[in-house]
From TrEMBL:
Domain RNA-binding S4 stretches: 1-61
Domain of life: Bacteria
Coiled-coil annotated residue ranges, if any: none
Protein name: RQC P-site tRNA stabilizing factor
Underlying gene: rqcP
SUPFAM superfamilies noted in UniProt: Alpha-L RNA-binding motif
UniProt keyword Protein biosynthesis, yes or no: yes
InterPro entries hit by this protein: RqcP (IPR025490), S4_RNA-bd (IPR002942), S4_RNA-bd_sf (IPR036986)
Key words of the record: Protein biosynthesis, RNA-binding, rRNA-binding, tRNA-binding
Length: 93
């Protein structure tokens, strides 16, 4: 399955076009390497997705072409969730 489609079907990202844009910006790593939207994902792969100050690391557990909202969370396991601290402004703002 394509990376951009997986991100949409698993509901990690709401729209496929947004998933495509995020991947093209280099904010998605597939097994530790930058991944294009057309990259093929398979069960057991690890994804690192950067959302602003937050990075979410998940392992792919299941691949399906469509899923209900209630079933989407079963498609992956969250391994790690990290928040980057904002760099402090030297002027205190």
């Amino acid at each position: 399955m394509r990376l951009d489609k997986y991100l949409k079907v698993s509901r990690l990202i709401k729209r496929r076009t947004v998933a495509k844009d995020v991947s093209e910006q280099g904010r998605v790593l597939l097994n530790g390497k930058e991944a294009k939207p057309s990259a093929t994902v398979k069960v057991g792969d690890e994804l690192d997705v950067q959302f602003g100050q937050r990075t979410l690391t998940v392992r792919i557990e299941r691949l399906t072409d469509s899923s209900r909202k209630e079933d989407a969370a079963e498609m992956y396991t969250v391994l790690k969730e990290e928040y980057r601290k904002r760099e402090e402004d030297p002027l205190g703002f």
